[in-house]
Structure formats: C-alpha cells, structure tokens
User: Fold this.
Amino acid sequence: MRKIRLVEVRSELAAGTRGASLGIDAMKVASLQKHSNFFTRFQPVSVKDENELLFREPKFPFAKYGEGVYTMLDRVCDTIAGLREEELFPIVLAGDHSTAAGTICGIKKADPQKRLGVIWIDAHADLHSPYTTPSGNMHGMPLAMAAAIDNEACEQNDIEEETEALWERIKQIGGNGPKIDPADIVFIGVRDTEAPEDHLIEKFGIRNFTTEEVIEKGIHQVSEEALDILKDCEQIYISFDVDSLDTSISTGTGTPVPNGLSKQQAMDLNIELIKDKRVCCWEIVEVNPTLDTQNKMAESAFDILESTTDSLVENF
Assistant:
C-alpha cells in the first residue's frame, strides 16, 4: 500500500471571498460528527500560510496579493516535491485553488522527465492570467501558471511592469518553463468560463466532460475516456474543487455555479479515477464554511475525501 500524507494548505489569498482557509478545519469537524478516525490515520504536513496579507490592500490589481501567492506556491511546490521524492502519496487539503499550481510544480520538480496529466474537476477552467483576468483573483489562474500561458492574444488588461515580473517568477517555480502541456488537461464539470479561456480550450483542444455527459454516459465511461485522453502521461494529478458540485449542495464555497455534479456523482467519479495506478496526487479545495449553514458543504466534502482515500488504499 502506498504511504499517504495529508498536506494542509490554509491559504485563501487568491480567493475573492474570505473564509476558504477555514475549510480544512470544517472538514475535521465534519469527521468528528461522523465519528470517523480519518484524521488520525494519516500523518499531516502543514504548509505555513501568508493570510495576514489580507489585512492590507492588494498591491497588484490584476494579481491580487500576488507576492503572497508566489510565496505559497513556492512552499507548496517544495513540500509536494519532498513527499514525492520519498515516494509518498500527497492528499492535499487546500483553501483557494491557486495553490494547485504549487502542487503541480512540486510533482514535476520531483520527476521532471515524467509527462504529467491533469484531471480538473471544477466549475471553472482557471486558465486566466493577469493579462486576461476579469477580477484579479489568482484562484482563477493556476492552470495558466502551471502551463506558463500568458494568453496575450486575448489581452484585456494593461498590467504594470511589477505584475509582469511577478507573473514571470511564478511561471518559473519548480523549474524553468511549463510543467504541463495544456493538451494534457482534462476538464470535468467546467461550465463557467470567459472568452479568453474559451479561446485556450479551443486552441489546445482541451476536453471538457459536462455534467450532462456524466449523466448520459455514466461515471465508468467518463472516467475511462478521461484517463484514455491522458494515455501518454506517466503521472496523473487530480484536483477536485467543490464548486464542481451543484448549487443545491455547494452553498459553502466562494463561486457556486448551477448545473453541477451531484454529491454521489462526484464521489463515484473520484473513487473511480483514483484507481488508476498513474495517479500520484489528489487534492480537494475551496470549502468555505462561512458561506454555509450547519457545515453542510464540509460534510459533503469530507464524505468525498474519505471515500476517495479509501478507494486509493483498497487499490494499492
């Protein structure tokens, strides 16, 4: 059996709504309510956060709190790289989704020669850059960071030199150049995109399995097809954003979007995908209990976390 490490990343610098840093502890509360021993089964690693920056005004309008985001990505990268070098399997519990770029960089840093595929289960494509962002919130940028994409063809913002320099530094975390090929990204549940992201999805032929497709084809077929798209990748990373869930469930997250996955679909999907022997890291993000009542989102998220981990344990 693979040795698992829980990696706790309580950063919410890149979100537009405050509270995602509390998501990990909200899931722990949910585990206690279930009388689960999950959080005693695996050794946790905690990555220091920079959330105190939130008490100041952001320096960069198109890369809000970017200096802190850079620090967090660098720390997460080093943490994940260290665990992968020890042949450990990281299960990452994170606040906002920006730190996923650090996770990807860490996986690549540990195995630079191995081709890395990404399964991104999310309502959003997260392919913006400072040049295209409509909000400046960097949790909409992790895949562009990891793929080193500027998308200047769709430039909408006149960014300052300091922002440009920061963005260049972010793209070099964990090693020079792109960490992933955009063609090696598979989306599941993406349904809220802007024109610059649509341009990239079309340009690179990124496959998106819609909620309707998941319902029509079923979990097994969608999982099979998603993994087949990544057949030439030697490693696969799965990132699960809880806003991939339908708004009937996902009230406790910063950017809920209608017409998402059901809790059961998300659970079955992650259980199935993580059985693939190439999967080297799994991540859950964006639980925000301050937007919820009675911790419902965290309870659903914890059920998915526990069942996915159990599937991993059973299949290795």
About this structure: Residues 4-314 form a domain with the Arginase; Chain A fold (CATH 3.40.800.10). Residues 8 and 46 are 5 Å apart (CA to CA). The chain has a mean pLDDT of 97.
